[in-house]
């Protein structure tokens, strides 16, 4: 992903420069408040966004069904004992050693690291009891470096279920020149940690996922591990989001159920990116999904009150009610353009190490990663009504 021209210190550090200002040719993006091309909204939009967010907050009720008919509201958040049992299924050692570490290598599309990462992801999910349906979406696209083969991994617990909660991240790494010691860009926050978090959630929820599948639940879980998020040269509409653009188009053309497509099965797409560093500030980006964002706020608050997050009392919450500094172009865009409700879980500002060779395991903050897993596992369990 990239923040807009004229953007942050980190955008300049990544070599995109202070930029010439917003680009003249807009991308047609129907999402409310999403600025074309520029990732920073023009100032006049910000008060409007804040107003819209406030209106959405006022309209919020305990668990509205959502615009795609997410069904009757669940019985509510689980009681404390059930919540503790759920969180007990998370394993920080497994997250780090089993799921994350094998991903910490260069994962350039079409290269050996990319293939190894894909095999790792599929091996982890294939070993679980929920019998995930695993599918590869491989295709070739022209890039500034010539034709490249990209491969998305699509994992679904119950592919025939009429509705899906979709969690997504990208697994490719940006091409950066090696450092003086020949060190490579490992993209720990970008996006090895989000991939590892998705695997950890799948492992922690394995039993309830299997039970829901066995009883033919209407709503299932789908994980997208997208390839080719990063630009090969300067970020543009054609040089970025290769995997997401291809998969969203393919899903929109694939019928599902009597009247829908794979795209219309998506009750909500939750995109994780740039997570794993300390003190993330994650904002709500879309009024349409603000009610879901408020569930994350409430879950974080509850876990903090129960003393279940290893954070200091003075630490600010991860999920912030203040308006987002601006939208960020990322893998959600091709799905948003096709009407999918989106939650974009990305810290703004970006981590200090963004698009530098310092984006390594040493600069991750394990208690933050564990806390995010706890919040997200509770969110997914509530959404899927476990
Ligand atoms: Zn990146």
Topology:
Elements: H1 9-13, H2 45-59, H3 80-87, H4 92-100, H5 112-126, E1 133-143, E2 146-156, E3 163-170, H6 188-204, H7 206-214, E4 219-226, H8 242-252, E5 255-256, E6 260-261, E7 266-272, E8 282-283, H9 290-305, E9 319-320, H10 333-336, E10 342-345, H11 366-383
Parallel strand pairs: 3-4, 3-7, 7-10, 8-9
Antiparallel strand pairs: 1-2, 2-4, 5-6
Helix pairs in contact: 4-6, 6-11, 9-11
The chain binds zinc ion (ZN).
Describe this structure in words.
- This protein has 386 residues and is α/β, with parallel strands linked by helices.
- Helix content is 33%, strand content 15%.
- A 6-stranded mixed beta sheet has the order 1-2-4-3-7-10, sandwiched between helices. A two-stranded antiparallel sheet has the order 5-6. A two-stranded parallel ribbon has the order 8-9.
- Strand 1 (133-143) and strand 2 (146-156) form a beta hairpin.
- Helix 9 packs across helix 11 (366-383).
- The two termini are 33 Å apart.
